[in-house]
Specification:
5 strands, 8 helices, two-stranded parallel sheet, DUF2786, DUF7168, Phage_B3_Orf5, three-stranded antiparallel beta sheet, alpha+beta
Length: 231
């Protein structure tokens, strides 16, 4: 039996301990203690069983993530009351891959990862459409700077449409424990702002306006519903 199945069984037994009559509670507790001893599980292992991680491809693969990419991660993290870390890996000469790992209550992170993937796809499409409106004579570096600003505006626009789901104190503590246990060597990453001039700033407004087409709703009290699309 896998650790996840064992922990799930222990959680069911713990529910019986809390809800059952004295005789049922005592029997359930004995089974819990026996399972924990047999599989060398601690009370921390049981507590952390409700916390999990879900990893998806990042919207940008650079080691130094652009500001807009981190804004996208942040808005999803806040919408679903979870944490997120960036994972980088070199897959070839000069080639990097980047993934976003969402960490939090198991019933929320799968939705968070899905929503992030959908938003990343929509942002990529919106970025492409915006670039197509720019002059073909414009320098590539200027196009990139304006597109990055567009993406920042888009992410800020979506951020102002979300209802943040604030995790409970217990959830925050458990997530912190999970990260400390499974990812003890995390380091702070570096981001890069768009290399833009004052003449490029209107691109951010275009992104904000484009974000009006996105609808994102996070439910209340731990019950999340993601609604994405054109309104």
């Amino acid at each position: 039996m896998s650790d996840k199945r064992i922990l799930a069984k222990i959680k069911k037994l713990m529910a019986m301990v809390e809800r059952g009559n004295p005789h049922e509670s005592a029997n359930a507790m004995k089974k819990v203690q026996a399972l924990m001893a047999e599989h060398q599980l601690s009370s921390e292992d049981v507590a952390l069983s409700g916390i999990d991680a879900s990893k998806v491809k990042a919207a940008n693969s650079s080691e130094r993530q652009p500001k807009w990419s981190l804004l996208l991660v942040s808005l999803v993290r806040q919408a679903f009351g979870c944490e997120a870390i960036m994972c980088h890996e070199q897959v070839g000469w000069g080639r990097n891959t980047a993934e976003v790992m969402f960490i939090g209550p198991a019933d929320r992170i799968e939705i968070a990862a899905y929503v992030y993937t959908v938003l990343a796809r929509q942002l990529k499409a919106a970025r492409g459409e915006y670039i197509s409106t720019l002059s073909k004579r414009m320098k590539t570096s200027t196009k990139t700077a304006r597109a990055d600003l567009f993406c920042e505006g888009w992410c800020n626009g979506v951020y102002h449409k979300i209802t943040a789901l604030v995790p409970t104190e217990q959830e925050s503590q458990l997530v912190a424990q999970y990260i400390e246990k499974h990812h003890p060597n995390l380091r702070s990453g570096e981001s890069r702002a768009a290399k833009a001039t004052k003449r490029d700033q209107s691109a951010s407004l275009h992104g904000w306006i484009a974000a009006k087409q996105v609808e994102l709703n996070a439910g209340v009290g731990g019950q999340e519903q993601a609604k994405l699309g054109v309104v």
